[in-house]
Amino acid sequence: MPNATFDSPDLTTFARLDELGLVAVGQRLSAERAVLECRLAEEDPWCRACGARSTSRGTITRRLAHQPFGHRPTTLLVRIRRYRCDHCGNRWREDTTAAAPERAKLSRGGMRWALEALVIDHLTIARIAAGLGVAWHTANDAVLAEGQQLLIDDPARFDAVRVIGVDEHLWRHTRRGDKYVTVIIDLTPARDKTGPARLLDMIPGRSKAAFKAWLKAHPKAWKDRIEVVAMDGFTGYKTAAGEALPGAVAVMDPFHVVRLAGDALERLPTTRPAAAPQAQGPQGRPPLQDSPHPPHRHQAADRPPMPAPQQPVRAREARCGRGDLGDLPGDGRRLPRTRPGESQSEDGEAHHRAEQARPGRLARAGQARPNTDETGSSQMRV
């Protein structure tokens, strides 16, 4: 911008103090807060009683939270002149209602900034209070007062309303006070596809009396222009709309229609699907899930299952048919020792003769000596 024209630095214009009828005369800046000393731009020395000109008798200060600049709270230190009439003795002070309402802690610029931060920037009250450098309740009361004046008290916002929507909203989660409010919305722009829906009002309670009282507070000409009232399934709202708006058609809003349809579908009885035919595994084997020994988690699904663990000897030999082992004892027991004179099986005698014929047995026996019984057979006694 080579041909740009710059004005001299002006703190009053930069801080938008001229809109409040103030002029900056000093400043004190710190990392936490900026304080601007201000005075009224025009003096008012004329007496309210006799009209004579008076002289100033000093000043008093008033602190106002202003819109923040540079991400730090800004405070206006307004010096207000006091006057005393020399003719009639009347006393007064300068009027500051253009800068802030009476007994307010925020300037009009600060209240406008707080409302825009809440509605447009969607900031929380806690963040707005931190930006202004005031308490949470102070910021909340200021936003409510400014919103009531600019949004709710504007009579022109009801002119083009033809379709309204009503529903309840749970906004208080405490034990005391009304927990529900009735929300009234202008659905005319949504029906005509000219813009989004607009909030008209929020009234305490969710009863027929609350909604009917709100409708009766409007003129008859406005109520005659209402064509459609969208609501949920609450009969209180429908009764109030039928009594106060006889020419309007009561319908259910799309949200509750879809919700009721979903609830109806959930209540329908469910039928169990038919069982699928049993699948066959690879090479005609049964599927792995039917095996008494499920496969290992690292085993591939197309591989055959792992073999079963080893079965007891009696069951394995009986399955394979290797000899007659019916005389075997139960699992975990040893074969009984054969005593002299008892009959042995053929296999037992062969085993005994083989043990007797082993070389070196007599030498290892130590004190072994022969013994001849009455039959004449020689036996070894150890």
UniProtKB/TrEMBL annotation:
Polar residues bias: start-end ranges: 369-382
Residues in Transposase IS204/IS1001/IS1096/IS1165 DDE domain copies: 164-268
Bias (Basic and acidic residues): 314-334, 348-358
Start-end of Low complexity biased regions: 272-288
Domain Transposase IS204/IS1001/IS1096/IS1165 zinc-finger intervals: 45-88
Renumbered residue ranges of the record's region Disordered: 272-382
Superkingdom: Bacteria
InterPro entries, per database record: Transpos_ISL3, Transposase_DDE, Transposase_Znf
PANTHER family given in the database record: TRANSPOSASE FOR INSERTION SEQUENCE ELEMENT IS1557 (PTHR33498)
Annotated protein name in UniProt: Mobile element protein
Organism: Agrococcus casei LMG 22410
